[in-house]
Amino acid sequence: MHFVVCAKQIPDPETPPSAFRIDEANNEVIPAPGISPVLSQFDGMAAEAALRIIEAAGEGKITVISLGQESAQAAIKQVLAMGADEGILLEDDALQGGDSYTTARTLAAAIEKLGDVDAVFCGRQAADWDMGQVGLGLAELLGWPSAIIAKDVQIENGTMHVQRVLADGFETVALPLPAVVTISNEIGDPRYPKLQQIMRAARKTVNRWSAEDLGLDPSTVGDAGARLKLERLFIPELGGDVEIMEGESAEEQAQNLATTLREAKVL
Amino acid sequence: MSVSERDSAAPVRPAGRRGKPRPVRLTGAWWAPAVGLSGLGLISAIELERTNAGREVFFNVQQPWIVYILLAALTGLLVYGFARHATLWTVGKPTPGLLREIPMRARNAIRLGLGQEKVRRDRYAGIMHLCIFSSIIVLTAVTAQVALEDDTPLSFLHGNYYLFFSFYGDLFGLIGMIGVGMALYRRYFDDFHRIRWDERLEDHIIIWGLGLILITGFGVEAARISVTELNGFILEDGTQLEAHPDWARWSFVSYAIAEPLGILDLTQDQVLAGHTWMWWIHVILAFGWLGLLVFTRLDHMIFAPVNAFLLRTDAPGRLSKIEDIEEQEVFGVGQIQDFTWKQLFELDACVRCGRCTEVCPADLSGQPLSPMHLIQDLKAHLASVGPEVQRRGHVGGDVREVAQLEMVGEVIKDETLWACRTCGACVQECPVMIEHVPTIVDMRRYLVMDEARVPATAQTALENMEMRGHPWRGTNRTRESWMEGLGEVPVFDGSQDYLYWVGCSGALVERNLPVTQSVFRLLRESGASFGVLGQEETCNGDPARRLGNEYLYQILAEQLVETFKAKNVQRVITNCPHCFNTFKNEYPQFDGRFEVLHHTEFLEGALTDGSLQPRHSLDSSVTYHDSCYLGRMNGVYDAPRQIIELLPGVDLTEMRRSRSKGLCCGAGGGNMWQEEVGERRVNHVRTEEAVGTGASEVVSNCPFCIQMFDDGVPAIQPEEEGRIRPFDIAELVERSVLGEDGASSNGAPTATT
Predict the structure, then answer these.
(1) Is B469 within 8 Å of A17 when comparing Cβ atoms?
(2) pLDDT of residue B745 exceeding 60
């Protein structure tokens, strides 16, 4: 079995609110000083899900793919330390920027290039923009079946059995391989890597593929190919106002409150 | 199999029963020779003309040469026994640096081994040991002199010296009896539990054996005195021994026994027969007892001074560095042969006295760690797998397959290792100088790095250190949040005298921010030249090292040493005793040598030299809690107390456990980030002690301690009214120097609670 885990490096979601800044002119998040980007948590869980299946089967291979910048190597190494076998960084100026569609397109091209992939594991969503579209888009582009927001994944006789989290419980679906599954936090925390593995991961070389390697027309990926346009990025202003209801008696105060609320069109 | 936890049904011992500990002031075993020498002088003066005193060596004993066969047998037994021990020790890895600092090691062997400095931390046990120890030494010398007199051309047991010899022999026999009496009382009558936590048959045999040896010794002497010196006697060769009651009185104990023997109207033959019997019983008991030296905990007579010699000579707060960590096959200690031979030797030195467990914060709180049982379990494990490991090691076999039980996980449970606070109380108390903490951390290293078995919450802290450079997951503060409202905060650029190191807790934990601000304002007020690193601060790795992730620690430490060097840092003031200890004692392992002060030390200096003036009277009663890493690990006990002394209107009440006997707050050793398992929480126990002093504030100097008290107080004092309030000593100083509203006079909001 050959699994692909898609991993994204994101700005630390635990950045303290006071350190979170955006550049409204360019609609960009300004990286907080002194706070390193991290592996999106759900992607770590996706790796955990893939590793559990491989461990149970006793054989198999995991390739971790990340679309990102040079720094995303750290995210790849983290999944390698957990036990993945190979890492590929999709890094190219043409690939930068973009939206969920171009990301799915780029990842799909890489998976097709790998060829013998049996299943793709993604996080349910990246913990920065929380779109949750790449997994589904990937399945669509590959023409594979998919199941999203999984709390458990098993593979038996070429069929993937997925427990999907629902609002009021879960459902189990079966998918023929190859398939795409996105993993939710219910699967549990990613494992703590052993030092031997961390050091082995540190020594591994991460392959780099460019748009050209993937056979992608630069105009269809990255910023150029994006179909989603960010109109405006801003931090909402939070505010509050207090008005004390005057009145001789409780009834009068209640009446005034009702009038005020009606005037404010709340009632 | 045994586990390193005591029966969980055992009741938690109530704290605070024996009152405030008083320092034990005995001058060691030195008074023994002093008494001897002065006695010698006295006797020489009185007995100048009496030169013919003496006695027949081996009087009334047939075949005394059997003694020498026994001696040979004993020697053989001792050699065999020690060789067996030594064989087990050789299973361990080499112990680097043991031959460095020989003078200090020799001093330790004398001070801690022969001088029994740690034994005396329990006064009763100190006196008891002194009695028994001096008695054994002197009586062995007495016996050796008899042998010399008999078997060598030397002849000195006559005249004045013989009388003196008789006197001090009896004196130390009596002292030995007192010691044995104290031991018997403690073992059988005293409401004193710790020596019974792991009581074995040998404990009874040892003490009764020694008592019988002394009793029969006096009996033999009394019988001899009765027939010879009191009544006169003719030897077989016709030598006439004249009656000499004046000589007999020098053997004052035996004389006191022999004199009343006359009432019994025994015949000379009966006394002689009794003498012979007792003589042989005495000799056989003595040899047998010495034979126990290799098979029972009596071996501490030898191992304790040796272990004192082997004791580390560097700071107690320093954990060892794993050199070339990337090339190790095993990280930390997973199996018995991964320990150093010194660590294995220590296992043999343990006497099961229970002092370590008695002071262990985990055990006190009913949590699954008893340092004594941990050492004993490792010892038993060594005995069970050691010989096979040793054999396979010789023939190049696979030593890692020997043990049937996993040492880490089965012999010593994971939760036992995690319960350790690395507070060092066990190491501090151990009378045979066992260092439990490095041994525990070595096994944690294996758990974390080799097995990746880490409690979830500790794992979060470790991952956070790795990803975010601090252990405080979920903080909504940045490293510069505390600077708000303080005016200009100087950034360290290498030109200032001090780097003020805020630390992760001081910057990122809500309760600790005001402390950071207090220290800052005091530094500014004192006129000191200092700067801070702000966003450039990262965790120095201490929690990672204590939790066992040496690899992460080394990465963080190496980075920070580079940063410090690049910024030309020479002197550091830290907020946190853990940062303090790491910079001071551990960074030299990474070639980072800086002068490190905790703010307590700085404040004491500033108050003493007048750069800070405590103007405002505080009208407060406080108790002071020694943090482990400032106190026990670095010996800073006086500076904080000096500060409290200097502040007007502050009244200090000490807790029962204070200074080197201080009890950990419960957060050390990475337990800040772990869920506690057990009957109680350590911080509740400690808070109870603080509340018990009746003080209105509990003052400490460590961000963890303060958090632990903050957490413990509502549990111990549910009523909000009259609660004890936890403060850092800097906050106390600030109130006195700058006044209650001193902060706002500097244009900053008051941040104290």
Answers:
(1) no
(2) no
Q: Residue A2 CB: number of other CB atoms within 10 A?
A: 17
CATH topology of domain B3-18+315-456: Fumarate Reductase Iron-sulfur Protein; Chain B, domain 2 (1.10.1060)
Residue pair B364/B15 in contact by the 8 Å Cβ criterion = yes
Burial code (b: 16+ CB inside 10 Å, e: under 16) for B510-534 equals: ebbbbbbbbbbbbbbbbebebbbbb
* Of B498, B671, B526, B729, residue with least CA distance to B595: B498
Residues B561/B565/B567/B573 CA torsion (nearest 10 deg): 60
Q: CA–CA separation, A182 vs A42, rounded Å?
A: 9
| A32 chain-B contacts, CB cut-off 8 A | 478
- Model pLDDT, residue B217: 93
At B420, give phi and psi (nearest 5°): -70, 135
The CA angle B581-B582-B588, to the nearest 5 degrees, is 110
pLDDT above 70: percentage of residues in chain B:
91
Residues pairing with A97 in the sheet: none
Sequence ranges of the domains in chain B:
3-18+315-456, 101-306, 460-738
* Cis amide bond preceding B438, omega within 30: no
Tell me if chain A has a CB within 8 Å of the CB of B477: yes
Q: Is the Cβ pair A192, B452 closer than 8 Å?
A: yes
A-proximal residues of B, 529-548, CB under 8 Å: 535-536
Using alpha carbons, list the distances in angstroms from residue A124 to A41, A118, A166, A179: 10, 19, 13, 15
Of A60-69, A83-92, B47-56, B87-96, which gets the smallest average pLDDT?
A: B47-56
pLDDT at position B2 is 45
Nearest to A129 by CA among A170, A100, A87: A100
Q: What is the pLDDT of residue B147?
A: 82
Contacts (Cβ under 8 Å, ≥6 apart) of A212: A92
The token pair at B746 is: 């500097």
H or E element, residue A172 = strand A169-176
Angle (CA) B155-B161-B164 rounded to 5° is 140
Contact between A9 and A38 under an 8 Å Cβ cutoff? The reply is: yes
| CA B633/CA A151 separation, integer angstroms | 47
pTM of the model: 0.87
pLDDT on residue B52: 58
Determine the Cα–Cα distance for residues A89 and A7; give it in Å rounded to an integer.
10
What number of other Cβ atoms are within 10 A of residue B293's Cβ? 19
How close does chain B come to A181, measured CA to CA in Å?
A: 26
- Residue keyed to tokens 């056989």: B284
- Read off the DSSP letter of residue B586: I
DSSP secondary structure of B420-476: -----HHHHH-TT---HHHHHHHHHHIIIIIS----HHHHHHHHHHHHHSSS-TT--
Is the dihedral angle over the CA atoms A176, A177, A178, A184 positive or is it negative?
positive
Q: Which residues have CB under 8 Å from B261's CB, separation 6+?
A: B222, B223, B226, B271
Whether the pLDDT of residue B34 is over 60: the answer is no
Type of residue numbered A25: A
Distances (CA, A) of B325 to B321, B440, B552, B669: 9, 19, 11, 21
What is the model's pLDDT at position B476? 86
Inter-residue contact B676 to B421 (CB < 8 Å): no
Complex ipTM: 0.84
- At B741, the pLDDT band (50, 70, 90 cuts) reads low
Nearest to A36 among B463, B467, B477 (CB): B467
Amino acid at site A119: A
Which helix (H) or strand (E) segment holds residue B370: the answer is none
CB B671 within 8 Å of CB B594: no
